[in-house]
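Q&A log
Question type: sequence-to-structure
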Amino acid sequence: MSIKNAATQKSNHRRKKSITDVLFRTKITACNNIFYSNGKKYKKNLHNKNKRYKFANEILLPTKGTLSPLFCMENKMISEQRIIKIFEDNPEIFGEYFLVEVKVSGDNDISIRIDKDNGLSIDECGQISHQIDTLLNREEEDFNLEVSSPGLTEPFKVTKQYIKNIGHQVEVLTTAGDKIKGVLIAADADGATIEETIIERIGGKKQKTIVKTTLPYGDIKQTKLILSFK
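Response status: OK
Response body:
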């Protein structure tokens, strides 16, 4: 298991667009962006954008450099909220998992971080990736999909990560700039409690003091798991 990413599964087989897609399935509009297909840059060949084109070489020509006017394909954008709704609407599939982070780029590169209480395997990432791929529509939307678990050294992003890691050592950085290292002993929807062991030397002897600090999430800038290899 990698420390950076415990498990990752990619599904980045974009469906290749044929010339039929270009002519009939994909709306082509004049725009200021560069249109790329299979790593090549294209520009409009003829000035009459309303003409019914019959051949590929009448529509697009490979070119080097920036030329104008340029053409781009109008691909349907997948929103982050749509991915979140897929999880919420299918508890029979995703019930034991929870979303940590969803990111979607302008090119429909979808990155999903998921987790569950007892950890996540790469096989489970593959299963989740397949389920999401099925619930989206590749005939209408072109996208890359990556499903992974959060890295072990990454900051917590959602409340369920705090709850999952109760009993583990954490390092908390508060919004006031204070650092607290200790055991995460409690967490709920409002905040988290850390039990810190402070060792002081009093009268030439070491003395341990247990301090419990409860912080609302609004006072926490960052929380990370402290890895132990003992």
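Response note: The first helix runs from residue 19 to 25.
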